[in-house]
Amino acid sequence: MAEVKIQAESRTEFGKGAARRIRRDNKVPAVLYGHGSDPVHISLPGHDTMLALKTANALLLIEVEGGESHLALPKQVQRDPIKGFIEHVDLVIVRRGEKVQVDIAVHLEGEAVSDALVVLEAQSILVEAEATHIPDGVTVSIEGLEIGAQIHASDLTLPTGTTLAIEPDTLVVNVTQQPTAEQLEGDTEAAAEGAEAAPAEEPVAAAAE
What we know:
This protein is α+β, with helices and mostly antiparallel strands. It folds into 2 domains: about 5-95, CATH 2.40.240.10; about 100-190, CATH 2.170.120.20. It has 3 helices and 13 strands; from the N terminus they run βαββαββββββββββα. It has a 6-stranded mixed β-barrel. The radius of gyration is 24 Å and the shape is extended.
């Protein structure tokens, strides 16, 4: 995975008011920590950060203005629940050659037999990989799988240097019988009957002030 270089600025103001001012300048408040060092509070350029974090487990080279450079991975990204812009980023410092644990996406390719319903039980899996060689994901072939087939974590073919960090028997893909139209209709009718039978909630009296 290629490193993404981002220029950062040190910050000394904290709190909600300071964070709002940083975001008004199209910047993102962030903190760098790890390897026993004191947290480094910085602000990142908004547009560059947004583009970089579109890639899962993006490897960032943070160059702090007037300070040191740090290789880091995004640990937690807080976004506005309505507008979706990045509010804050926690970055964990890593070193070249260091092994880290990260979640990588599971991608399916191919088609199972007809009348099969393929259920992706694990959208992602936890793996251990070298910090500068984190895979984008793992691809799983479901071509020709029969009903009743299952794929576990131990069945996955991981890139060289990447190992599982979850139980090998974790279920990743489950192939079941596709429900018939009659079964789906029956489930819908049962749900509707259950909703009708549910007792209405009693209104709660307002407490006297």
